[in-house]
Design a protein that fits this description.
The protein has 484 residues and is mainly alpha-helical. It is 68% helix and 3% strand. A hairpin with a 4-residue loop joins strand 3 and strand 4 (234-238).
Length: 484
Amino acid sequence: MDWRIKPLDEILANAERKALRRSLGPFQLMMLGIGAIIGTGIFVLTAVGAERAGPALMLSFVIAGTVCAFAALSYAELSSMVPVAGSAYTYSYGVMGELVAWVVGWNLILEYAVAASAVAVGWSGYMNGLLQSWGAGIPETFTAGYFDLKGGQFGAGQGVVNLLAVSVVVVVCALLVRGTRESAAVNTALVFVKLLALGVFVVIAIPNIDWDNFSPFMPFGFLSHEVYDPQLDAEVAKGVMAAAALIFFAYVGFDAVSTAAEETKNPNRNVPIGLIGSLALCTVVYLLVAAGAVGTMPTEELKNSKEPLAEVLRNLGFQRIGDLIGVAAVLALPTVVMMMIFGQVRIFFAMSRDHLLPPALSAVHPRFGTPWIMTVVTGVLVMAIAGFFSVDEIAELSNTGTLLAFIAVSAGVLVLRRTQPDRPRPFRCPAVWVIAPLAIGGCLFLLASVPPKSLLRFGVWNVVGIAVYLLYSRGRSMLAVRAA
């Protein structure tokens, strides 16, 4: 079989011929990472995670964060060696060949575009909660999608289309078309708003912890298993690993830093700083927030909230501050939508540049220097998903694609250590023969803990992806044309 491995030197040279503007420094990269990471996972999915694991949600955060830390070290090594757009897709092309690269790139759509949709739906919940507190709530018809799961059946609720989620995607795409530097500046400002809101939550919630809420600590056990939920009239996943497989979504986004490598000044140094720094800071914040949430409000009450952090503070008697947390989420969650779409566009850009997608899609705007056509296409895809589906269903599907990408990157580091041991590595993953296998094993464990219905959708998605590759991309790629 012709694996069509694209030499790393050629990848770097090709990027220089059709390059994006380098304008980002280490601080901006770290802010991009934090902006992408802290979002729906902590602001919204805390409630769903608590329902699945109980107080052991904190352990779920530790497990998911540890797996991401191992994967981040692999990302840091590869991104310092190949500082171009495309992230795991580009790395796979240069290490394991075109077919693997296509599969990874196809699944990165789940990580970025689908994740952006989940965050947009999460933002919608906070926005409508805030409007309701002001007496101006929007009916469910326009704040829930038609396929939002209710009563165990799709379309059983009153939702038609989530217009709030769609609207935030429109605004974000307009800003991204305008320019990377401008987007990064807005992101940095809103990241501070987000961190301030979470800091206020921790300062208020931690002293009010009721330690009885932590007992029993692990009510559903450790491993993921299906339990019948009479409220939903459906089987739902329970256990620490079930929550970890979902709450893993809270960390999705740190690798968006690597997708910005081609727009980074001194990427060999700055990309690893952005990756590891943003992940470390967010992990500490997550543990404190999770402790405050499950320690101050019983999980049975917390699980039904679409704006859990705001509701926790209101439950403690801090109504106005709870509303302010809602305001902060409304202001800050769009930064996560921004970074998810930003990352997806750069991956599409790299695939288009390799002719695996139509080359016209990688056109750069003559004035703004951004891949504007790809941004619009991605925005339409994100709006379609956000408008019609529920946040937890979207998040679980997104996680499957992310885990596959992490496995590919970690494996790629090991392959390159064997095949090109003398290639310059500005950043070297420490104890790589321990760290990378742990990352792969951890991702497989999390993937096995995803509910069966999401794994089925993951399988169908990849069957469709392989068909697209065989029918269109394989015969049109630059390597195929060259070999003809």
